[in-house]
From TrEMBL:
<protein>
    <recommendedName>
        <fullName>Transposase (putative) YhgA-like domain-containing protein</fullName>
    </recommendedName>
</protein>
């Protein structure tokens, strides 16, 4: 995951495409006025691809009522060849109008509740909606990676429409106040975790390499058995790969 750019969000994700799991980058763009955005979406596609060199899925969320009633662009002409002629970057468009919020809130999906929070609906109780979102997150937090939790945290914090005091109280109510709230804090914590894992793995590797101890002795000294060691190796490799 990368930092947001001018309100845009980028996140790496794995999705099933043509029966295979592929890693992609999702670009989430918000648009609330009539300004042209096709070129900007394509520029961020190029930026995201250069960073990760993975396919990019661009999604544009329209939130303005005036734009909602008119056709909106969903592609950008970026190239040409003699056979296919014009080549376009196509992106998905989701139009969020005020009256859609109620329907979104009724759905159980966490994503729908997040989109409802983003929509401009004066009839929605933002405090209640934020509480429902964090109750859902609390139930799912063991299944969600910390970077996804951070992304949700930043999204809700930006669109919460309630005071910071109420926001903090809601998180405390559902035991969600102990997670990093900034990308810097997240990477500091990940760096500490990576350093601790590297030290433990180096110690165990040294014991194994020099035939100093067997696994029962290693487990007794480090608290890490053989299975945990292999799992730690895999997790450490993933953390290292995420830095690239």
């Amino acid at each position: 995951m990368k930092d947001s750019l001018k309100g845009d969000l980028f996140i790496a994700a794995e999705v099933e495409i043509d029966g295979q799991i592929s890693e992609i980058v999702i670009h989430h763009e918000n648009q609330s006025n009539r300004a042209s955005l096709e070129k900007r979406v394509f520029e961020y596609l190029c930026y995201a691809w250069l960073l990760k060199q993975k396919p990019v899925w661009s999604i544009v969320f329209y939130t303005d009522d005036a734009i909602w009633r008119k056709p909106v662009p969903d592609k950008y002409w970026y190239g040409f060849d003699s056979k296919n002629e014009k080549q376009f970057h196509k992106f998905d468009v989701i139009k969020l109008k005020s009256h859609m919020s109620g329907e979104l809130i009724q759905k159980e999906s966490l994503l729908c509740k997040l989109l409802a929070l983003k929509a401009n609906d004066k009839g929605t109780d933002p405090e209640k909606l934020v509480r429902e979102i964090y109750q859902t997150i609390s139930q799912m937090k063991d299944q969600l990676p910390r970077d996804i939790l951070l992304l949700i945290e930043q999204f809700v914090s930006f669109y919460k429409k309630i005071s910071q005091e109420k926001f903090e109280r809601i998180k405390k109510e559902v035991n969600m106040d102990d997670y990093p709230e900034t990308i810097s804090e997240y990477y500091i914590l990940e760096g500490e975790k990576r350093g601790e894992m590297k030290a433990t793995l180096s110690l165990i590797d040294g014991l194994i390499k020099n035939n100093v101890a067997d696994w029962p002795s290693i487990a007794g000294a480090t608290g890490v058995d053989q299975q945990q060691y292999f799992e730690m190796q895999k997790e450490y490799q993933q953390l290292e790969a995420a830095r690239i």
